[in-house]
């Protein structure tokens, strides 16, 4: 075709990398054949499995033609060279190829109908290769440019980010979404909530009372889980991570495609991977975690433990216990896990142990602000929820009411600002237990006996009860969720009906 010969000339488009004297990967003949197939049979587009978009076409004219085809098909219109004519009569680039007659010539031989899927795959693959060339060129140019501060780690982080986008096929999908696309996505979320029984539209926490309060963990959300030491932050985070991963595994085994579970990446900057594994084994085998650590278990309990470990072997839960991670390194590792294992939830234990870029180390508030913004950016970039644990200031201990408030978040108000949800874990039995008076012995006066009896009654009232205080929820109401906590197994669970004493306030 003479028109194609014109397109394939070295100076016809931006196909030549003049710096290297090489032509970028492209197959304009494949693009033309594919467009011809679509114009002959519009159903070709509907049956495509490759996520091909206008920007994947190398030739700008082809990109505009495909974009118009998709727009008309969305309106349920029949697309032919004739119906396309009004939209391209004034297209100067198309005039150079012969004008409207070029569109008719695309359908002349119909060869594209023989293998439209293969043509689409090749167009898509070549577009990704061109993106790789762009990433590589930018990386080389950045590495050679030493005019500014030399920051190789930052360049590596940027290259990782760009490569992730290429791997996800999203490197050219940074334009604003139309309102129609946004509402379609919102309706899909609402439909999932209806199908789940009216309580979950995101990823499950495995705890019905929490799911009912927040509707599940939503994609792109940053959840801050905070509390004073000893409240059970890590225990709750571990429980949620396990429950979410287990649900995905179970749904896969049952052949359920739309699961409210997800693969989980757990970044543990405080505890080692084996310590976290011990917690999960203790929870699932109902054997005391302290007994496991000290080896004080019977043969029967060990067999039960071994059986439990086998059932957990395929759990899509990935633990990274690298200490002193920077926020940039964490984002790089998260992208790799997303690419390799398609994770759907990230847990970070805990935020204050992350490090910033190094430029703000003289100002801890600025560093924490950088970290919280980085976690929120990660949640949006990977389109998944991120749960970040956080410490609270000692101001809690100075009040009579030990329940945390948003102002207790340590070191930076930006944590509250960046978070979509802020949760506080509060266990009154922890504080009541620390106030135990002197145990009475024979010969003590009645006041000592009465004081300890009053304390014991108070402890019995609150023992094993916990509160999850939802102090901020961008998409819903705040309030308290009451849970059961079993310290021997470091396990949070829903309260059974009748377990909650109304006097517990």
Q: How large, in whole angstroms, is the Cα Rg?
A: 30 Å
CATH class of the largest domain: Alpha Beta
CATH topology of the largest domain: Rossmann fold
Oligomer state of the chains in this structure: single chain
Number of helices: 20
Number of strands: 11
How do the strands of the widest beta sheet line up side by side? 5-4-6-7-3-8-9-10-11
CATH superfamily of the largest domain: P-loop containing nucleotide triphosphate hydrolases
Helix content: 40-55%
What is the CA–CA distance across the termini? 81 Å
Q: Please describe the biggest sheet, giving its number of strands, its sense, and whether it closes into a barrel.
A: 9 strands, mixed
The total domain count is: 2
At CATH level 2, the architecture of the largest domain is: 3-Layer(aba) Sandwich
Task: Note down, in words, how this protein is organized.
The chain is α/β, with parallel strands linked by helices. The chain has 20 helices and eleven strands. The protein has helices spanning 2-7, 28-40, 43-46, 60-74, 81-88, 92-96, 100-106, 116-144, 152-167, 179-195, 208-214, 233-253, 273-285, 289-294, 299-311, 327-341, 364-382, 414-418, 428-434, 446-462, and strands spanning 16-17, 22-23, 222-227, 263-268, 317-320, 343-349, 386-391, 421-426, 465-473, 479-486, 491-494. A nine-stranded mixed sheet has the order 5-4-6-7-3-8-9-10-11, with helices on both faces. The protein has a two-stranded antiparallel sheet with strand order 1-2. A hairpin with a 4-residue loop joins strand 10 (479-486) and strand 11. Helix 2 packs antiparallel against helix 8 (116-144) and helix 5 (81-88) runs antiparallel to helix 7 (100-106). The longest helix is centred in the N-terminal third of the chain and has 29 residues, at 116-144. The N and C termini lie far apart (81 Å).
């Amino acid at each position: 075709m003479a028109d194609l010969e014109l397109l394939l000339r070295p100076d016809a488009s931006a196909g030549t990398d003049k710096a290297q004297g090489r032509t970028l990967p492209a197959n304009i003949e494949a693009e033309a054949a594919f467009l011809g197939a679509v114009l002959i049979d519009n159903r070709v587009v509907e049956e495509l499995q490759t996520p091909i978009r206008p920007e994947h076409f190398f030739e700008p004219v082809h990109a505009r033609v495909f974009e118009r085809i998709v727009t008309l098909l969305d309106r349920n219109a029949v697309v032919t060279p004739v119906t396309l004519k009004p939209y391209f009569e004034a297209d100067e680039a198309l005039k150079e190829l012969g004008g409207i007659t070029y569109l008719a010539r695309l359908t002349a031989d119909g060869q594209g109908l023989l293998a439209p899927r293969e043509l689409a795959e090749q167009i898509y693959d070549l577009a990704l290769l061109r993106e790789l060339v762009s990433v590589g060129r930018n990386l080389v140019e950045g590495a050679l440019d030493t005019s500014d501060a030399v920051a190789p780690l930052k360049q590596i982080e940027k290259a990782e980010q760009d490569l992730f986008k290429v791997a996800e096929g999203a490197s050219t999908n940074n334009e604003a979404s139309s309102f129609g696309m946004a509402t379609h996505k919102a309706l899909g979320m609402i439909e999932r909530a209806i199908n789940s029984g009216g309580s979950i539209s995101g990823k499950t926490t495995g705890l019905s009372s929490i799911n009912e309060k927040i509707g599940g963990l939503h994609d792109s959300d940053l959840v801050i889980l905070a509390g004073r030491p000893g409240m059970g932050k890590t225990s709750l985070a571990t429980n949620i991570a396990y429950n979410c991963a287990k649900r995905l595994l179970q749904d896969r085994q049952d052949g359920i495609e739309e699961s409210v579970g997800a693969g989980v990446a757990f970044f543990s900057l405080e505890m080692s991977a084996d310590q976290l594994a011990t917690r999960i084994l203790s929870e699932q085998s109902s054997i005391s975690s302290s007994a496991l650590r000290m080896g004080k278990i019977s043969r029967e309990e060990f067999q039960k433990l071994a059986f439990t470990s086998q059932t957990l072997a395929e759990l899509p839960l990935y633990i990274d216990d690298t200490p002193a991670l920077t926020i940039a390194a964490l984002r790089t590792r998260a992208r790799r896990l997303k690419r390799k294992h398609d994770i759907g939830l990230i847990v970070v234990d805990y935020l204050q142990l992350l490090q910033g870029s190094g430029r703000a180390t003289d100002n801890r508030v600025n560093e924490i602000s950088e970290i919280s913004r980085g976690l929120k950016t990660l949640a949006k970039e990977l389109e998944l929820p991120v749960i970040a644990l956080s410490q609270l200031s000692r101001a809690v201990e100075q009040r009579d009411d030990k329940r945390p408030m948003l102002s207790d978040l340590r070191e930076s108000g930006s944590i509250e600002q960046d978070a979509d949800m802020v949760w506080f874990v509060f266990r009154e039995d922890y504080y009541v237990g620390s106030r135990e008076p002197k145990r009475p012995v024979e010969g003590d006066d009645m006041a000592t006996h009465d004081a300890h009896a009053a304390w014991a009654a108070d402890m019995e009232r609150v023992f094993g009860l916990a509160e999850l205080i939802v102090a901020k929820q961008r998409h819903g109401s705040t309030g308290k969720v009451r849970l059961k906590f079993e310290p021997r197994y470091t396990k949070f669970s829903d309260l059974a009906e009748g377990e909650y004493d109304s006097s517990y306030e």
